[in-house]
Amino acid sequence: MAKKTIALMIVLSALMLSACNFPLFSNSDDDGAANALATAVSETVQALSNQPDLPQDQQQEAPLDQLPTITPLPTLTQQAVQSPPTQTPLPCDKALFISETIPDDTPFASGEAFTKSWTFKNVGTCTWNTDYKMVFSTGDAMGGPVSVNVPAAVAPNAQVAISVNLTAPTDPGTYTGYWKLQADDNEQFGQVYVRIKTESVLFQVTSVTYYMPHTTINMACPGPLAIKGEITTSTAGQVTYYWTDDQGGQSATKAINFTAAEAKIVDYTMTVNGAGAHWAKLYIDQPNHQLFGPINFTVNCP
Q: Is the dihedral of CA 232, 235, 238, 240 positive or negative?
């Protein structure tokens, strides 16, 4: 009903404004126009009055939940300002492994000697002097020394090779020894290792070498003559042997022990009865059952 009243007032106002265009005093033609306008206003008011009122529930405003939803603008997130990374200072003593000799799991004969070398680069800030060492840390020492000194001063960014003399263990198997660099203040760094395999090797005498000052000898006859023989073995074990010579002499059987693949010297004193060509030789009883030699020489008896 309120809306109808408002609409009616609007129409009347419009008509009144239109009527203002007519003068207060007019001729008959103007009277006819005024009558026509009055009739139009009357009909308009009547039409508005005759319109039915809307039901009460239709006159209410639309509920809020039927209004369009306005999507909120995204929240702006402020990006954190990242500071540049902090530069980590280099340590005084630091080594970079470069290369090595004797690759891992290299096979060696029981008791065989070998040399392991490691090459390092000094990537610290301190110079390595000759009081720096390579020291045995843990594992299998393999007959090596407790430590080996750095052979020369090593400035930062320079390289050095350090070698250690080792011996393969007697028993077959895999052996690993760990070594570290050690500074002159005993701080340790730069660990490396050596790993080898020791294979079972048949124990035997591989060679006999004879020694005499001369092969032509002037001496009083009969008389004694000293001869030396060097026995070399393939691995650790015990060798039994005896000497024989062209004069019919023969020594007692003797035994000598070898702790690895090595060489040892044995002596023999031969009795020379007269001038001429002579010889002497070794018989290896255990383990070879084999004669080695002979050594030939000439004796002059003044």
A: negative
Task: Specify whether 33 is located in the same domain as 119.
Answer: no
pLDDT at 261: 86
pLDDT in tens, 68-114: 666 666 665 666 666 667 777 889 999 999 999 999 999 988 788 99
Residue at 227 is within a domain: yes
- Could you list the residue range(s) of the whole structural domain that residue 12 is in? 2-52
Query: What is the separation, in whole angstroms, between the first and last Cα of the chain?
Result: 168
Bond prior to 107 in cis (omega within 30° of 0): no
Q: Do 195 and 99 belong to one domain?
A: yes
pTM above 0.85, yes or no: no
Question: Hey, CA dihedral for 91, 97, 98, 101, is it positive or negative?
Answer: positive
pLDDT tens string 189-237: 999 999 999 987 788 999 999 999 889 999 999 999 999 999 999 888 9
Q: Say whether both 157 and 241 belong to one domain.
A: no
Both 209 and 293 in a single domain?
A: yes
Q: Strand runs (DSSP E) across the chain, as ranges?
A: 95-100, 106-109, 113-122, 133-139, 147-149, 159-167, 173-182, 188-199, 205-211, 216-218, 223-233, 237-245, 254-258, 263-272, 276-286, 290-300
